[in-house]
């Protein structure tokens, strides 16, 4: 089926979100591209399984600005299904998709399912494990863009994410973050307190109806 809406219920902290494992394939029409995304719902993946609406918002944002992706080196954090990074790769970016190790099989499945018939415009997306604040130093700092879609929901991870973003952006990468602004998860606190400690933060898109914001963040000069 063709679908343009994502999952929109509150993000749980509980890893046991889904008791049984099942797969759902959905075709998303985004930026003139049709992406077939498999969502592996199961107890292990939890919140990494669904396509979240904030991710689709970020896809649409770049769909209106494809020139911001073409030819760029892009890394996505907490990629989940990979819909954002895969679209970026289809639009000409050289993309690295990262998430916790348990999410990598889903990412790899979706990358394989979405290779254009003519081949990837730049290079096939890479899929690598990355735990914020732990192994980020294994990654380079020469990215053009860092993408994050609906990853701001566990307050204890906020300092770790800022630390990771600071390393990835040492050479001036720009970060785009799309978030459902959930007060119960202190999402606004991340953008008002944590991220501004190291980055200049600008709101570039606001959906009042769905309470989703997209921010653009650039490292402060002193970093």
Automatic annotation (TrEMBL):
Pfam family, one: Methyltransf_16
Molecular function GO labels: methyltransferase activity
CC annotations in GO: cytosol; protein-containing complex
Gene Ontology biological process: methylation
Keywords of the record: Methyltransferase, S-adenosyl-L-methionine, Transferase
Coiled-coil regions listed: none
The keyword Methyltransferase is annotated on this UniProt entry: yes
Protein name as it appears in the record: EEF1A lysine methyltransferase 3
Organism expressing this protein natively: Mastacembelus armatus
